[in-house]
Specification:
Two copies of one chain form a homodimer. In chain A, 55% of the residues are buried. By secondary structure, chain A is an alpha/beta fold. Helices cover 31% and strands 25% of the residues of chain A. The radius of gyration of chain A is 20 Å and the shape is globular. Chains A and B meet through strand 14, helix 10 and strand 15 of A and strand 14, helix 10 and strand 15 of B. Chains A, B: Keywords: Metal-binding, Oxidoreductase, Zinc. Chains A, B: InterPro entries: ADH-like_C, ADH-like_N, ADH_Zn_CS, ER, GroES-like_sf, NAD(P)-bd_dom_sf. Chains A, B: Belongs to the zinc-containing alcohol dehydrogenase family.
Amino acid sequence: MKAVVFHGAFDIRVEDRPEPQIRDPTDAIVKVQTAGLCGSELHMYRGHQTTKTGHIMGHEFVGIVTAVGPDVRTHKVGDKVVSVFAAVCQKCWFCQHGLGQRCENSLAFGTQQLDGGQAEYVRAPFADGTLHHAPAHLDDNLLVMMCDIFPTGYYGMIRALEFVGARFVPQTLDEAVFVCLGCGPVGICALMTAVTKGVKKIYAVDAVDERLAEAEALGAIPLKLGRDDIQKTVLEATEGRGADGVIEVVGNKAALRSAFDLTRQCGVLSSIGFHQGEVPFLASECYAKNITVNFGRAPISTLFTEALECLEQNRERAASFVSHELPLSEAAKGFDIFEKYQARKVVFKV
Amino acid sequence: MKAVVFHGAFDIRVEDRPEPQIRDPTDAIVKVQTAGLCGSELHMYRGHQTTKTGHIMGHEFVGIVTAVGPDVRTHKVGDKVVSVFAAVCQKCWFCQHGLGQRCENSLAFGTQQLDGGQAEYVRAPFADGTLHHAPAHLDDNLLVMMCDIFPTGYYGMIRALEFVGARFVPQTLDEAVFVCLGCGPVGICALMTAVTKGVKKIYAVDAVDERLAEAEALGAIPLKLGRDDIQKTVLEATEGRGADGVIEVVGNKAALRSAFDLTRQCGVLSSIGFHQGEVPFLASECYAKNITVNFGRAPISTLFTEALECLEQNRERAASFVSHELPLSEAAKGFDIFEKYQARKVVFKV
């Protein structure tokens, strides 16, 4: 079969590989129809995340089940499925408690652990937990958003929304003010969630004009890094307090610090960015701010149904989310234009 | 009148001062009957918290209203009242949203801002919000715990308890494991709350044997710093995961780091310690742990009724909480023995 193989920084090649086979009784094999290219793959592509080479890329894929192991219960040959970005065992303590993002037996697609979905076929371990039924009425380009980016943006946003409605930050979404730092694909998904859930005022911060235009089209108020005085604008909109909830989707130190500064006392900072460095604020500042901070990634399987429902409500707006459809053979080009911010979302049609 | 005046580090004197008068229409004057000595006053007493001198100490007091300004609605002369450690205006955005710990017009008793309650009389600004009615059937030594330490410990604990019961950490209190770092007065109040609310397994960490004995008597499992392997014990009790919720009541870097290490992935760290330095963990560690961290102090007025209800359920256990009753004239001795850990809780009878 054809597969997109990682050969090192900026070196992506389409090669022939053997078709995967059922290995464990909980495996399924999926014939891929649409595979996404996710922003988090750029860490590897750019050489920032060091890894051995030779694995098949991709952790977003939609396709048809062609084989199942004897212990697979919820999927059968011929089913259309959507995968989660990492296989989840459904048996460990974390999976049993709905916290699959920290599954003890998790295997991430598109890494040395597990070949990914940018291929004609892919082996999905723990298929009952890893694969979800794909509603027939939804387009592949919408479904591929469900593998990672939509539930991730959804989670980052509702963590903030639900906190703001809770007893220690008792506000209605009508009166609350939010900020989303970062308007890449995940940020846009967070904004879709906010607007769908009834948020009336949310600022969207980014440096890229196209992303800000998209955020504005969703109903957010765009603020451009380097042009607008973000701190001043948010403080003025909140009688000097700061935002009730801030979602940080960027994953660097400056963004996390900015998120902290934009959050009001007793507010919430929901950070879903992938961070590698220090915490850029002091414990004394945290005490004085009485802040609550959430870190880390989303339990995709747990949130799948409710996030899908939210995405369906954004069906029209999301219809044009994929900007580039390419055949698998043009994978190298796909990575190149995505890395250069010349494409919002690239999918490979297999 | 007699009053306990701060003259600098380790220099506390009882002096004659003029009786306070109504100054603003929302003021009340309280004839103090019992005034507590709180651990947080030691920051000033030991010279760690630099301040000018000359003010009257004390932010815990119970007494009888002797005068009210024309705008005081909920208290009248003759009422028995309990004060909150800082006056809260009830009018600013934070007060209106139940977040009095960040009242924009707050005045802390026992500081240069506002003379405190270790005196025969004290002026209470914003009396309607600052003073609470004292139930007649409760002893002064119990009521004085309501000014600060009990609601503070209560808040630190329920922030963790309620999170553990919420959708992103879905557990029952029956199965959850908690750790309380620090078993001074506030820590003991947090432990009382935990046990009253149905927590079955909570580890209590401290370096002082008497505190650990007290924690054990409440039903907690004592772990002594420097003797027990705290990390190992907690990991073994949780199949290697760590505690579901950790409450940190100490307020130093080592305790905050230890609290982080003891918290499991997707768990909660509720820090009510007063912190002055850095955050002793990396953003990358936070991401990997998917942790939620709460910082800061309690909204005492908001929680007063429910915290009092919880304290009443601990009435017998709390009856012996005050270890030393002294007349106001022996205030210097009170500070001295409290600072040397020779007293668990000192109150002055006026």
